[in-house]
Amino acid sequence: MRAVFAVLMAVWMIAGQATAENRPLVVVELFTSQGCSSCPPADGLLAELAVGQADLLPLALHVDYWDYIGWADSFARPEHTLRQKAYAHAAGRRSIYTPEMVVGGVDHVIGVKPMMLADLLARHRATLGKVLLQGDIIDGQLRLTAESAGLALPPLMVAQLVQFTARETVQITRGENAGQSVSYANIVTDMRVIGQWDGVGRLNISADVPGTGPVAVVLQASGPGEILAAIRLR
Predict the structure, then answer these.
(1) Distance (Å) of CA 116 to CA 15, 88, 198, 210, 222
(2) C-alpha angle with apex 58: 50 to 139, nearest 5 degrees?
(3) What 3-state DSSP class applies to 231?
(4) Residue 183 near residue 199, CB atoms below 8 Å
(5) DSSP labels for 141-205?
(6) 184-221, pLDDT tens digit by residue?
(7) Using CA atoms, how far apart are residues 62 and 230, in angstroms rounded to an integer?
(8) What angle do CA 15, 17, 21 make, to 5 degrees?
(9) In what order do the strands lie in the sheet containing 215-221?
């Protein structure tokens, strides 16, 4: 598995070395739990993707439906469970599970499948640029703009402010992963809608951004559906 991770990382390091803010990103959402015995390999893959990949925004969304099996995930948020359920509904599925990755808001990867993930990343990278999304944060205030690149867009899109913790290690003492020390990356601590857009004209948004940690903005078709644009702000 580590050899496959290395191949995947090499592909993406060749694809882009720069680390500029406001660069368009492919979003990878991992639905995971500290209480899930199948999740540490996926957590490790996401952590690998989070290191120096200029074209990626890997995000770990910890869910709460494993909490009753001996260990309550310290990062779990019920909103993440609801988001995963919304993705399942959009895909015509009745069940949710961990680990699951969602790429670009539309493609689902069950478990840990690095080569399948690599193919999806390449496909989504080729479609970046439907929307020009730009923003900055000055004195805790976000200023965001979005403009169409002239391509067809969904009738309604939502701009979401994402705040996350870059990395944290947890000593798990109970449940399926008892005795393990697991490192997590890009742990989502808040994800909230800050505006809506119909794709007509120019979108302008201002919003308060508390704290000093990493921040990104994701512009996504309502549903949730396709992610049209994403940028990292700090």
Answers:
(1) 17, 19, 33, 37, 26
(2) 90
(3) strand
(4) no
(5) EEEEEEEE-SS---S-EEEEEEEEEEEEEEE--SSTTTT-EEEEEEEEEEEEEEEEE-SSS-EEE
(6) 999 999 999 999 999 999 999 999 999 999 999 999 99
(7) 20
(8) 110
(9) 107-110, 100-103, 26-32, 56-62, 181-197, 157-171, 215-221, 227-232
Question: Kindly report the CA angle at 171 between 167 and 175, in degrees rounded to 5?
Answer: 120
Question: Average of pLDDT values for 12-39?
Answer: 77
Token pair of 161, please? Answer: 């402010």
Q: Which DSSP letter does residue 98 get?
A: S
Q: Which of 103, 111, 114, 129 is nearest to 226 (CA)?
A: 103
**Tokens, residue 77:** 């948020």
| Six-digit token string for 125 | 């990278």
Note if the pTM is more than 0.85. Answer: yes
